[in-house]
Amino acid sequence: MADFLSGFWSYYIAGITITGILGCAWVLWSNMTAKVKGPVETMGHTWDETLEEYNNPLPSWWVWLFVITIVFGFAYLYLYPGLGSNKGSLGWSSTGQYDAEVVKASQQFDPIFDRYAKLDLKEVAADQQAHQIGERLFLTYCSQCHGSDARGAKGFPNLTDKDWLGEGSAEYIEQTILNGRMAAMPSMAAVLGTADDVANMAQYVLSLSGSGHDSVKAALAKDKFVACAACHGPEGKGNPAIGAPNLTDKTWLYGGSAQTITETITLGRTNQMPSFRAFLGEAKIHLIAAYVWSLSNKPEAPAKTAMVQ
Prior knowledge:
Its cofactor is heme c. The protein is mainly alpha-helical.
């Protein structure tokens, strides 16, 4: 990989670029200087019985368009980066343009974000303008995993219900977005014993939520659930303090079939919510957290604020 970072490739790319443009110029020049002697002959190509291709000189408009294109190419390479590592006389870069756009956007929108950052999350959730801003931010940065309707997908939780692995408070949601979360369900296959024991446990877990199950197999696994109670509790109602899910409801992150539950017990699960603190900043996350909280809670008194210009 280090070979691609050497200076050779810069010269290689620059050489190919210049050779390509000079090659086009040579083709143009050779066609302009070629003389047609005597009657114009055909190239031997005929279509639709009478449509023939003649060896006529290039039309002037085409020649000048070609010349302009070549001149433009050299002018562009002089002004902008295009010849390997050469930065061009203007010193333009996509990174510099992006940074300039970020500064411009910050000057326009930071006063809005800062104003809401000083308010309590529930106050922000009750504000109509803040709700709209939070929704746009969510659609831009969060919908890839949680969906545009925030109802999630396999492995990505639904944010519109009240089923939370943690507290579900507005502050908890904000801290989750700021710092991220790591969740792990260890493999329990070795603890439970045989493959039949794992299959029986899957049936017992299904019974906890009143889902369809094999009662005989569930009864065989009941005493072994003590191995799972350390996280999920003796009744299977979970432990929000450590993010262990409630097994007595019918909310499943990966699916509630016997096959999926067996897979989870056998292999375990690892899931991560990344931290967005460095990427978005605390002010934007404050708005997103308020929006996410409002999806499963009703703000008491929706307010309408004046738009900040």
